[in-house]
Amino acid sequence: MPCDIDLKRLTGDIKTWGRELGFQAVGITDTDLSAAEADFNAWLAAGFHGEMEYMARHGSKRTRPAELVADTVRVICARMDYLPQPQPALWRNLEDPQRAYLARYALGRDYHKLIRKRLQQLARRIERAVGPFGYRVFCDSAPVLEKPLAQKAGLGWQGKHTNLIAFKQGSWFFLGEIYTDLPLPVDPPQEKSHCGSCRACIDICPTGAIVAPYRLDARRCISYLTIELHGPIPEALRPLIGNRIYGCDDCQLACPWNRRARLTAEANFLPRHRLDQATLTELFAWDETTFLHKAEGSAIRRLGHERWLRNLAVALGNAPTSPEIVAALEARLDHPSPLVREHVRWALARHRQIGTPTRTR
């Protein structure tokens, strides 16, 4: 890198170019995550990561950026809004026990690829301005402690639900990073939490996964249970999942800061294949070929058809009893997967034991 570059001006340009690429905010921080490292290691020691062994697999690379990418001295952090619909529409979907609820980040195209592509474009724009430099882009794709980095870069604070919240703008956004060897000026961190005495996210969590302010036990989190967990969902937690078949947004829906959240301007994050309107029986009828086709280019595809059916069987077990639902479940009783069959039997037992319509939130 030439020594006569105006780094302060370059920093301003990077933020402008980031906005032009669709990011709502860009911030820059150093690589000191010592405070976050202690907290992260305590979280691992408590076993709150469950079966997500990859969270501990890379040692200190997650909390020491220069160990992951040599010569990294700065991290360019960016956020992009993804909320596809007004929040009242989300509540209506969630409160209809016959409809499937998917976390809103998963309704459109896979954010991993889109964010990385935009960050790569930003890095190339920087390269055109300064010449070759060292960098690597990330979006939830490597051992990166993205929320503490984003907080240090001034993009928001970690709320009591542990998601990042942007002041007056909420939390419905994705994060991405560029690790770089450019010694750019850093932004002031967001050191203060603006959650105050509010505990809306803690109180609304269906499974009690937020075990204390700023402390999440992933083993109880519906996002973990429906996405990260590969085996059976613990029976005690199944009734609490309701109609949520892929992730959960309850803590974000309850957060007062999200009353100000803006809808996404990115068309790629808008719902595909009517996934924001589909019924449980409609999705449960998808065979593997249909699932792979409909989920192509989506974050949902990583789930696989077997766990897709597992999750839907649980939701159908929580839905009001009807001939249609019972018939749908019975049609999967002989499914080749023991995992699917066990959850289908559980769901049918719920209906046969209850015998009258129920509603689970």
UniProtKB/TrEMBL annotation:
Give the residues annotated as active site: D140 (proton donor)
Gene Ontology cellular-component terms listed = cytoplasm
Needed co-factor(s): cob(II)alamin; [4Fe-4S] cluster
The residues the record assigns to binding cob(II)alamin are R62, D140, L164, L175, S223, C248, D249
Q: Which Pfam families match?
A: Fer4_16, QueG_DUF1730
Q: Which reaction does it catalyse?
A: epoxyqueuosine(34) in tRNA + AH2 = queuosine(34) in tRNA + A + H2O
Q: Which residues bind [4Fe-4S] cluster 2?
A: C205, C221, C248, C251
Domain 4Fe-4S ferredoxin-type: from-to ranges: 182-215
- What metabolic or biological pathway is this protein involved in? tRNA modification; tRNA-queuosine biosynthesis
Keyword Cytoplasm: yes or no? yes
Q: What is its main location?
A: cytoplasm
Instruction: Write the Enzyme Commission number(s) for this entry.
Output: 1.17.99.6
UniProt-annotated location(s) = Cytoplasm
Q: Which GO terms describe its molecular function?
A: 4 iron, 4 sulfur cluster binding; cobalamin binding; epoxyqueuosine reductase activity; metal ion binding
- What broad class of enzyme is this? oxidoreductase
Can you state the subunit structure given in the record? Answer: Monomer.
Its family remark reads: Belongs to the QueG family.
Functional description taken from the UniProt entry: Catalyzes the conversion of epoxyqueuosine (oQ) to queuosine (Q), which is a hypermodified base found in the wobble positions of tRNA(Asp), tRNA(Asn), tRNA(His) and tRNA(Tyr).
The entry's protein name is Epoxyqueuosine reductase
For this protein's source organism, the top of the classification is: Bacteria, Pseudomonadati, Pseudomonadota, Gammaproteobacteria, Methylococcales
